[in-house]
Amino acid sequence: MLPYVALMKRLFPTALLLALLPFSALLGQDSASSPGPAETQAETPATPSSAPATASPETSDPAVSDETEDATRISVLGYHEFSATEKATEMRIPTAKFRLQMQAIKDLGLNVITLEDFIAWKQGKKTLPDRSILITIDDGWKSVYTDAYPILKEFEFPFTLFLYKNYVDGGGKALTSKMITEMQKHGASVGSHSTSHPYPSTVRKAQRKGPEEYQKFLNAEMGDSKKFLEAKFGSPIITYAYPGGFHTPEMFDTAEMVGYKHLFTVKPGKVKQDTNNMEIPRYIILGTHDSIFEYATSFRATGNSLGSAGAIIQTTPHPVTPAPGGSTEDRLPLISADLSRVEGLDPESLVMRVSGFGLVPAKFDPATKKFSWKVNRRLRKPTCDVSVQWKLQEKPDMEMPMRWTFVINREAAYQPKTAPSLPQAIQEKSNEIIPQDPENKSSN
Ligand SMILES: [Zn+2]
Where is this region: Disordered (predicted)? Predict the structure, then answer.
């Protein structure tokens, strides 16, 4: 198993809480400072609520799906912008993290499908493997071409570009037609994301002008973009991603009129074959929150397959061991953070917390600038959460803690005979943990 793919989930309620708190805190913010097609906050998915950790009847009942039901579940991932150098935001993911996510999809054995596969399956013309992934990227940022595309090409993963008319060849940070055409030759499909990417307030304003004016507006946003993209990039465009996920019933009628068959929201959840085609769920993968990807790659048990846990993909701003999301066979590992790149670090202020231990007496080595603690009681849980926090000399307050999670590889650590092998343990475990995805809960 590759070190950064963790097949086990964080099981500690405290870790879950910590993961969710900053998320809700951020929901009010927007990337208004960045140029280009800034997204509305509506494009971000709803805050994952702390759903009760009890399994719903479906997970424990093997008779949930009758044999005639299609058991395939698709996770549609939604990305926006990528950057190797700029700070991560909700809508902009570090390129390195995107690569780790693609690697995780491969390591989890999930099947990445084309938009055409998705459409054929949705229309009952094709069957797909039980757990499949559709990768979509909204808006048409140039970084799709410079950062994501080389990685997708390397993994041979097909992907879908939801483009909006006014940003194609829009200059600056926008994709050019030439880039889009080239990507089409290597796995890219095109869908529509409107003409002008109107914000919900703009849509509501048009709506208030009366049905006739509103219809004109919708024809321009949905119809014109379809014609434009078809003329420019060929093939019928029958998919549409609502800008900001915002949609009204009139859009459903317009979709039928102008010829869209499959319309995507930003509401997280798995897609089933009979999921309403006007409101297809998508996991918007935020650059700043690792839990969404984990939910997206978690699958519950169905009538003919066991549940499987998703991947924890984490990156820390400073090198740490054991690696974030990585696994160790050592149940008494040395936990260490290399802080040599922290300028103005106040070593006196350093604190380390480890799940199951609380505050631990970690030591700072002034020579190596490593802050380390050797675990002194065998780790018994499948995962271990660490947080390291410090203060800068000239600042009064502690900095935000650096957190990560690593996995204890119990296959190696457990005594034989009595313990199940790790993959089996994961499958058994996954039924209890996956209901943390609020959407899975309602869509199954
Ligand atoms: Zn958008």
Answer: 31-67, 417-444
